[in-house]
Amino acid sequence: MRYALLVCGDENAVVSPEDQAKTEAAFASLQHELRSAGILLGAEQLCPSATAATVQVWGGDVVVANGPFAETKEKVGSLLIVDCKDLDHATQIAARIPAAWYGTIEVRPIWETPLAA
């Protein structure tokens, strides 16, 4: 089953260059391991939430606003798509993502029913 691992954290947190390098190296190593095992299907880092737009349709009118809709301290900063045998396997992988050291990893199953083409 496929899972989305949403990596959330404080975009304004100050991280030392040493900690940043340690985190990036650990994440690169984990990505390589998961890709080699055929578990990691995709991974993307997102631009800061200030660059986002939210779109809603109210009574047929399209409303576009700047930034994220939710006013929370932690924002989604990246996402991974993994193919795991079950939720326990997905949460074990999520716990190995270096961002879990200072943020939150949300694990969500992906509907296996494809969207209409």
Description:
The chain has 117 residues and is an alpha+beta fold. The chain has one domain: Alpha-Beta Plaits (2-Layer Sandwich), CATH 3.30.70. Helices cover 26% and strands 37% of the residues. It has two helices and six strands. The strands form two sheets. The chain has a four-stranded antiparallel β-sheet. A two-stranded antiparallel sheet has the order 3-4. Strand 3 and strand 4 (61-66) form a beta hairpin.
Helices, strands, pairings?
Layout lengths: L1 E9 L6 H20 L3 E6 L7 E6 L2 E6 L7 E10 L3 H10 L7 E6 L8
Antiparallel strand pairs: 1-5, 1-6, 2-5, 3-4
Give me a quick take on this structure:
By secondary structure, this protein is of the alpha+beta class. 26% of the residues lie in helices and 37% in strands. The chain contains two helices and six strands.
What kind of assembly state do the chains in view correspond to? single chain
Q: Give the structural class.
A: alpha+beta
CATH topology: Alpha-Beta Plaits
**Rounded radius of gyration (Å):** 16 Å
Largest sheet features: 4 strands, antiparallel
Beta-strand share of residues: 35-45%
Total of helices: 2
Order of neighbouring strands in the sheet with most strands: 2-5-1-6
Task: Identify the overall geometry.
Answer: flat
Provide the domain count: 1
Q: Regarding CATH, which class?
A: Alpha Beta
CATH architecture: 2-Layer Sandwich
Taking all residues together, what is the mean pLDDT? 91
H and E string: EHEEEEHE
CATH H-level superfamily = Dimeric alpha+beta barrel
Core attributes:
26% helix, alpha+beta, flat, 117 residues, 2 helices, Alpha-Beta Plaits, two-stranded antiparallel sheet
